[in-house]
């Protein structure tokens, strides 16, 4: 136990870690970002996401490492991806696409990938 008004010895470690996390988050805003769309099948369920590391994120989706929408509905096929110079630009674009009607998203996919083929092999070049 500590006396009232004193800080436990573990606090500097937590504070240091928090500062590193905040610093990483702030610095990553200046790195490149990617907006992507996953599908369960052609004309199936869609998921729009944003990441600074598309290879890692795709792996997480493929192996259902993050519980949520994509693992619940089997949305695993990468059908569209777009690169941005800044993560903030990618986040802005993802929010824009998420506001679109479904048909606009389908049109976006089909303009670049009419067969809705898995384009995850593109990630090997990153």
UniProtKB/TrEMBL annotation:
Residue ranges of domain GIY-YIG in the record: 31-108
Database matches in Gene3D superfamilies: GIY-YIG endonuclease (3.40.1440.10)
CDD domains xrefs: GIY-YIG_unchar_3
Pfam families: GIY-YIG
InterPro entries the record matches: GIY-YIG_endonuc (IPR000305), GIY-YIG_endonuc_sf (IPR035901), UPF0213_domain (IPR050190)
Family statement drawn from the similarity comment of this UniProt entry: Belongs to the UPF0213 family.
Annotated protein name in UniProt: GIY-YIG nuclease family protein
Native species: Devosia sediminis
């Amino acid at each position: 136990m500590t006396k009232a008004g004193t800080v436990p010895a573990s606090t500097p470690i937590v504070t240091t870690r928090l500062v590193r996390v905040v610093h990483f988050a702030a610095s990553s805003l200046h790195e490149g970002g990617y907006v992507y769309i996953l599908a369960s099948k052609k004309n199936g369920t869609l998921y729009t996401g944003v990441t600074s590391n598309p290879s890692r994120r795709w792996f997480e989706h493929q192996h259902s490492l993050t519980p949520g929408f994509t693992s619940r509905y089997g949305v695993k096929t990468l059908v569209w991806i777009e690169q941005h110079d800044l993560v903030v630009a990618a986040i802005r674009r993802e929010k824009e696409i998420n506001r679109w009607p479904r048909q606009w998203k389908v049109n976006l996919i089909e303009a670049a990938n009419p067969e809705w083929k898995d384009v995850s092999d593109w990630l090997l070049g990153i």
